[in-house]
Amino acid sequence: MAGSPNQRTAVTAAHDVELAARAALGERAVFGELVRRHSSAVRGLLRRLGADAALADDLAQDAFLAAFEQIAEFRAEGTFQAWVKRIAARLYLRRWRRDKRMDLMAETPEPDMRPVDESRRIDLDAALNTLSAAERLCVSLCYGGGFSHAEVADALNAPLGTVKSHVKRGLDKLRDRLAGADGQAGDQVHG
Amino acid sequence: MAELEFEARLDRLFAQAPVFPDAAIFAIEVDHRLERGWTLRRLLIGGLGLLGGLFGVVQLVSLNVLSRAETLTAQSSKLLSQNVHQFIPLHLSFLDLPFGREILGMSAALAVIALVLGLTRAIEEI
User: For chain A: N or C, fewer Cβ within 10 A?
Assistant: First the structure.
């Protein structure tokens, strides 16, 4: 275990792949470092998918527990963060299907009633808030969760064309919102 | 081109993790849940092992397996010694060897020790 200060330093300096390999051997403290490194990204993704704060945190915890259970299956073909994000996204989709939150087949986009304060710096999360729930989910799964359009369609049990049109409409809205933002300032993200 | 640039920017924005002030607390909560899971699993495995062991003992006692095994062992031993005496020529019997049974026993023990050492070495090399 990473008990002594030297061991802790070694853990914090180690690469994700090394930590994952050690966690696969049962070193729970080492897995804790992976949680510390990537929890914000996973929680952020879940919120961007449309989960409220409490649900996002619950699902993020579940995702890390599932990741620890399946850590031996992590092949380091992608990053550890991307791997956990996919697990989290799948957990969210399972919850979403259970709750049947929206009708993806409804082609009419929800009206955007949120006022935009132009004086306020526009960031990604603010821009995502202007999308309909379906657009937000599809765009976030593709760009935040690393899903392909076909994977999103499969996961949502929706036609591929519907998913593509949600993504396109979502991207159009995001482009409009983000176009006005200053390059550097616009790239900053709030929690 | 503009489309590609926008998508690259979007990838970059999504890759940036928001900052959560309670990130340390979140990590501790995950650790606690992992610990709870391990404790429950250990208790479950231990409990099942205990139950399995008790069940095995009850079965052994109820089926009178030990006395049956004792009888079978005695019969097998008797049969084995009869066959040995039948197939081994008299001039090779232990009594006729130029050394005693103790020497034979010690040699066998040394051979077993050497075998164990060899196996240990082989496992270490693997």
Answer: N
